[in-house]
């Protein structure tokens, strides 16, 4: 008889309790969990709870910028200046990050998760150019760019178990969204990304303009005096070939030592710092940031 999958459909609620735990306690929680059966719980603790929301937003911006290398994607985003990333970048970014937060909150096995996936795919069907291959590439950015971003700012940050769980989590999301031909191993997926980018990437005006919209979006998340530094830091974390695609030059690395020092400090204090287990990207990104006059947010999600 084939053994049945005993993994619960809904995420285990104890890892979303409205209480605080130290970083050391959370890492022990992660160590006690299985990266396949508990990929949702580990990804939540790793990405929602332990990573500062600003770092998560910067990593998202850096990874999404890479997807603009495909002219089909860039043109869809830009729409000759009429795209949401150009007109309302704050709304566009926060809606996307909130949806990703819903993925992590609902998991990928529950009926609630499937409802979110179906809603996202309904949106994709209304927009030309969001095909299967495009979505698989975005999936690859969500899997691997947190690791790449952490390395770019000077620290490994994630354990092998966290990386494995995040890989399994996003593969589960891919199944829920009914994506086809998704590579099943990390090595195969990285090879697939390289082949896709060799075949599709070329610089375009649409990519450059869409990236400017991204920078405007993340700038609104921080107080005005910090905005130039945040823009420079995001550009600095891009690979040189991605900067070439976007038509931007490497900034002078004046902010890089400060960022690396901040990352080291966060890593040093993380074991004794206390974090809310119920923190999610939904409640981090579905509300307006420090500058409400910059834009408005149109999507309010249930954080429960």
TrEMBL record:
Superkingdom of origin: Bacteria
Domain ER-bound oxygenase mpaB/mpaB'/Rubber oxygenase catalytic span(s) in chain numbering: 85-268
A GO term for molecular function: oxidoreductase activity
Q: Which Pfam families match?
A: MPAB_Lcp_cat
Q: Which residues form the signal peptide?
A: none
Record protein name field: ER-bound oxygenase mpaB/mpaB'/Rubber oxygenase catalytic domain-containing protein
Q: Which organism is it from?
A: Rhodococcus oxybenzonivorans
